[in-house]
Amino acid sequence: MAECEAKERKILVGVDEGEESMYALSWCLNNILVSQNSKDTLVLCYAKPPRPVSTAIDGAGRRELRGYMCSPNIIATMDKYANELVEFVMEKAKRLLKEFHNLDVRVEKIVESGDPKDVICHAAEKLDVDMVVLGSHGYGLMKR
């Protein structure tokens, strides 16, 4: 009898700084990727919140922040914090992945700015993923 060849799967996991997303990643590793299909690809997707600032620049080189003028230093500080948060989340995910050292899957990372529901849906469609795994904050249908 011919052996069945394992299908290549792409599994997208939405990650953020919350414990719920790390639980979702852990669940995915324990329940979906446990088959050790080396053709699997795990996609970690992080949605950076968009800056709450407009980028209109006045004649003095200052940017407008919701009707207030602020220096480029404030914008740079906000960007730096957002990038540090991305690094923190991805490092946390990396540590969790190391616990599954016998797992042989490719890992891709996607970081985009925007509303998480839009970023995750866009990434899932663009990459043609087979499955999306998300944590739940327990908001219910009204918030989602």
Written description of the protein model:
- There is one protein chain.
- The protein is of the alpha/beta class and 144 residues long.
- The chain has a domain at 10-49 and 82-133: HUPs (Rossmann fold, 3-Layer(aba) Sandwich), CATH 3.40.50.620.
- 36% of the residues lie in helices and 21% in strands.
- It has helices at 19-31, 72-98, 116-127; strands at 10-14, 41-48, 63-65, 68-70, 106-113, 131-133.
- The strands form 2 sheets. Strands 5-2-1-6 form a 4-stranded parallel beta sheet, sandwiched between helices.
- α1 (19-31) runs parallel beside α2.
- The radius of gyration is 19 Å and the shape is elongated.
- The protein starts with 9 loop residues before the first strand and ends in an 11-residue tail after the last strand.
- It comes from Camellia sinensis (Tea plant).
- InterPro entries: Rossmann-like_a/b/a_fold, Universal_stress_UspA, UspA.
- This is UspA domain-containing protein.
- Residues 9-143 form the UspA domain.
